[in-house]
Design a protein that fits this description.
The complex is a heterodimer of chains A (743) and B (157). Chain A is α+β, with helices and mostly antiparallel strands. Chain A folds into three domains: 202 residues, Aldehyde Oxidoreductase, domain 4; 169 residues, Aldehyde Oxidoreductase, domain 4 (2-Layer Sandwich), CATH 3.30.365.10; 328 residues, Aldehyde oxidase/xanthine dehydrogenase, molybdopterin binding domain (Aldehyde Oxidoreductase, domain 4). Chain A contains 17 helices and 31 strands. Chain A has a seven-stranded mixed sheet with strand order 12-13-10-20-17-18-19, sandwiched between helices. The longest helix of chain A is centred in the first third of the chain and has 28 residues. The termini of chain A are far apart. Chain B is 34% helix and 13% strand. A five-stranded mixed sheet of chain B has the order 2-1-5-3-4, sandwiched between helices. Chain B is globular. The N and C termini of chain B lie far apart (32 Å). The chains are: A alpha+beta (743), B alpha+beta (157).
């Protein structure tokens, strides 16, 4: 730390807060904490560090769950900073939290990934950080050589003063640049035509570490004096520990301590998931062996009679009554009554689990004056809140570090495992790494809500849709929101501004909430996964039952490009013409309409998810009850694709997630217990399920990015089931497909 | 007491002989490239080589490897400049997403290519059973074919 820094107009630390302020996250002039190890004379703000040899170390503030954000966001900074990507390395930043007079502020901007917002929320912020740092380097160079700034420009890694023929490497300027005051106005940003990094093919920044086994995930955390913990959670949903006998567990070599963990009270929003008994030991295996030796008596649970069978029977019964009308546009009743043709079907979408491959885990060390948390979490601020709630330590003293994360899918939006680890460390005073087994994970998830959908459509003599209704009974995930009124529970299940609002004239959406003891949460592309399956299947059925072509019907419905107002998550407008473009594109690519042998068929689907657009065309063979996926063509319109490798990866991975889930995944409950436990009865699909013929296409649109993490998933399942119908005449209206094709 | 070699280094383990090799590698030897995914040998994230053959370490009791030679992902390449062709192919196709399963995928592929040096897609489908939750299968398939090319072109091993 330079002794002069404090004397100057603005400190490095303030610069970054100023940088964040540009993006609207923070304001300049917050009280500043004391200096810390993260300070370096070679840093311009918190995100940009330039070494003497020209190496650039860029901070990434968001959790990396495999979506590629740790490569994508630094690309934005590097673009505007004007450096060679080959010279860039990336440092994962911790949670940046500051105490203010009124609460807390976020030193590095908002941190957390969910809802496909990682890129869109940081698009301006990161580019402005890069551009601001570049501006500081130019000013430092101009001051040094005594010319006006206007005579200086940059080329990658250098400030260039053409009139003097001088080139100064960034590494020689950084210490001066870091001490300069900031100009009032935001820096100018590059035009799209000038991009050298944004929109280009760049490999995953951590790829070498990953393929050599050096990449660290939460579960890989090793800290001095660390102890290992596991928890035996209640087998029956929402049950609590009555009593337990730990004598055998304590005899297991390596077991250090055994004690009860309290779960949340029934009906309260879940802070931690389950009541149970914790076992702390000198190794993971010893803790697991200790757990196996526990004898626990559980209290009766209000959920012990919950079952999938009962849930689905209740859903059918509820649909016979009237639900809450959550959207009623035009005159649905008379439009349906006067329709010349009506189509009606029911669809069933099951509970599913996230099952990220890295089981939940967390390192917590509660100390007198603070708390260390190392967590694989999508929401580091939630981890901070969970640790504070458990320990009573003020949040600015809770240090949350993020590791690379072995998959998210929405599971790690909830920091229950952080709360658990904090409870165990608080109780023992030890540094604790809590590890869940796969069984713990499958049985203690916040599952995707299941629902029964009744669809009805009315058409006129020309085959045009004039009336549409969706009536949904589900177990809303919003039950966990504090103070959530019952009449708002639908909001997690039906996004009312989705298709067909403002596209079909007379629309009614109706919702019924069927509570069940199964915990629910956000599963990648939440309600879009259910609704895209239902709507894209139903459009297909309407086409077949009214003698129309499924592609042409979609094109007729979506129509030309136009902006429709949209108030649900992810966008301000919805442009159905972008769906027309995509579905037409994938249909042409796969050869839709060509002659196919007996038993072969092509299915299409397209959907608007959280601001992005996607379509799938899938070709299958169904023969003797056996399904073979022959070919997949997927396309995404995510506006400007910032990091195309990651866009391709998310489109491929989203497709595979959607298909794997549709093929064979379901969580069921019997006698209040989750029936699945591991990959033998929750069989994630393997490589053999997916064809070598698998294309992804990015269709660019204008100059702003949308998110990509969830966009490619929702249309995969209905494209598959529509293909199955085209091939075999068998209509899948209940997921998963499982053995429905067997005669 | 169990004695074995790991990445050519002699080690001993004197804890519970039924401890799965996975947890000996991770908790006792502090080598974390070998991952825990399911604990019952279904996902392959914990794949290592025992005397050169792929094995799922989460269901391998450490006593079963007494006197044997283990290779983990950390021992696959002699240095970053001399990656194994499978690792090289993984980089060329930018395979990883979250990356958690990839060390196991790579260890499984190395052994697979010994038996199927020029694999067909069908060979891959029948033999590659590791789970990737991110769905990197499209690039894994391409990288396996590429690794086969690199290996026959005279890469390491």
């Amino acid at each position: 730390m330079s002794p002069a820094a404090g004397q100057l107009a603005i400190s490095r630390r303030q610069f970054l807060i100023a940088g964040a302020g540009v993006a609207g996250s923070l304001v300049i002039g917050l009280p500043l904490p004391a200096t810390s190890a993260e300070d370096s004379d070679r840093m311009i703000g918190f995100f940009v560090q330039i070494e003497a040899d020209g190496q650039i170390i860029i901070g990434s503030n968001q959790p990396e769950i495999g979506q590629g954000i740790k490569t994508g966001l630094p690309m934005l900074i590097a673009e505007e900073l004007d450096v060679e990507w080959a010279n860039v390395s990336v440092r994962q930043m911790p949670l940046g939290i500051l105490k203010t007079e009124t609460g807390f502020a976020w030193k590095y901007g908002g941190q957390g990934v969910g809802g496909s917002t990682g890129m869109t929320d940081n698009w301006d912020f990161m580019r402005e950080i890069g551009a601001t740092a570049r501006g500081q380097l130019i000013r430092a160079a101009a001051a040094r050589i005594g010319v006006p700034e206007s005579q200086c420009r940059t080329k990658p890694g250098f400030v260039v003063c053409s009139s003097l023929g001088t080139e100064i490497p960034y590494g020689d300027l950084v210490e001066e640049a870091a001490r300069l005051g900031l100009p009032e106005e935001s820096p100018p940003l590059k035009a799209k035509a000038d991009y050298r990094i944004i929109g280009t093919r760049r490999d995953t920044i951590d790829a070498l570490d990953i393929v050599t086994g050096r990449a660290n995930y939460g579960i890989d955390t090793l800290q001095p004096d660390m102890r290992y913990a596991v928890i035996q959670r209640a087998p029956v949903l929402n049950a609590t520990v009555k009593s337990f006998d730990a004598s055998a567990a304590r005899r297991v070599a390596g077991v250090l301590d055994v004690f009860k963990i309290d779960g949340p009270a029934m009906g309260e929003p879940y802070a931690i998931l389950a009541s149970g008994v914790a076992v702390v030991a000198t190794s993971t295996w010893a803790a697991m062996q200790g757990r196996a030796a526990l004898e626990i008596e559980w209290n009766e649970s209000a959920s012990e009679n919950d079952s999938s069978e009962r849930f689905w029977a209740e859903n059918e019964e509820m649909l016979k009554g009237d639900g809450q009308v959550v959207l009623d546009e035009g005159d649905f009743t008379s439009a349906m009554a006067s329709a010349s043709k009506q189509v009606r079907h029911q669809y069933r979408v099951p509970f599913v689990s996230h099952a990220p491959l890295e089981p939940q885990n967390c390192y917590v060390y509660v100390q007198e004056d603070g708390c260390d948390v190392i967590a694989p979490t999508q929401m580091p601020s939630g981890a901070s809140r969970a640790a504070a709630a458990v320990t009573g330590i003020s949040r600015e003293k809770i240090r949350v570090e993020m590791t690379r994360i072995g998959g998210g899918f929405g599971r790690r939006l909830t920091n229950d495992y952080v709360a658990e680890a904090a409870m165990i460390s608080k109780r023992t005073g030890w540094p604790i790494k809590l590890v869940w087994s796969r069984e713990d994970d499958v049985k203690n998830d916040f599952y995707r809500p299941a629902g029964l959908h009744e669809m009805q459509a009315g058409l006129n003599d020309d085959g045009k849709l004039t009336a549409w209704t969706q009536r949904l009974v589900s177990a809303s995930k919003y039950y966990r929101r504090p103070n959530m009124p019952d009449e708002e529970l639908y909001g997690a299940e039906l996004y009312v501004d989705d298709f067909p609002r403002n596209i079909i004239d007379n629309v009614r959406l109706e919702y019924f909430h069927n509570p069940i003891g199964i915990p629910r949460g956000s599963w990648r592309a939440p309600a879009h996964t259910a609704n895209a399956f239902v709507i894209q299947s139903f459009i297909d059925e309407i086409a077949h039952e009214t003698g129309q072509d499924p592609l042409q019907l979609r094109l007729d419905i979506y129509g030309e490009e136009r902006e429709i107002p949209y108030a649900n998550h992810g966008a301000d407008t919805f442009n159905p013409g972008r769906l027309s473009r995509l579905v037409k594109f994938v249909a042409e690519k796969i050869g839709y309409g060509k002659e196919l042998p007996q038993g072969r068929g092509i299915g299409l689907a397209s959907h608007f998810t959280f601001g992005g657009y996607a379509a799938h065309a899938i070709e299958v063979t169904v023969a003797d009850g056996k399904l073979t996926i022959e070919r997949i063509v997927a396309a995404i319109d995510c506006g400007l694709a910032v990091h195309p490798n990651a866009v391709d990866a998310q489109l491929q991975g989203g497709t595979i997630d959607g298909l794997s889930t549709a093929l064979g995944l379901e969580i069921t409950v019997k006698d209040g217990q989750i029936e699945q436990s591991n990959f033998h009865n929750y069989p994630l699909a393997k490589i053999a399920a997916f064809p070598a013929s698998f294309e992804t296409h990015i269709l660019p649109y204008n100059d702003q990015p949308t998110g990509v993490g969830e966009i490619g998933l929702p249309t995969a399942a209905p494209a598959l089931t529509n293909a199955i119908f085209a091939a075999s005449g068998i209509r899948i209206r209940s997921l998963p497909i499982a053995d429905q094709l067997k005669a | 007491m169990v004695s074995f070699k790991i990445n050519s280094k002699a080690v001993t383990f004197d804890g519970d002989q039924n401890t799965p090799l996975l947890w000996v590698i991770r908790d006792a030897l502090n080598m974390t490239g070998t991952k825990f995914g399911c604990g019952i040998g279904l996902c392959g994230a914990c794949t290592v080589h025992v005397d050169g053959k792929a094995q799922r370490s989460c269901v391998t009791p450490v006593l079963a490897i007494d006197g044997r030679s283990i290779t983990t992902i950390e021992g696959l390449a002699s240095s970053d400049d001399k990656l194994h062709p499978v690792q090289q192919a993984w980089l060329e196709h930018d395979v990883p997403q979250c990356g958690y399963c990839q060390t196991g995928q790579i260890m499984a592929t190395v052994d697979f290519l010994k038996k199927y040096p020029k694999p067909s897609d069908e060979d891959i489908d029948k033999n590659m059973t590791n789970i990737c939750r991110c769905g990197t299968y499209v690039r894994i398939r391409k990288a396996i074919h590429r690794a086969a090319e690199l290996s026959t072109a005279g890469g390491e091993e």
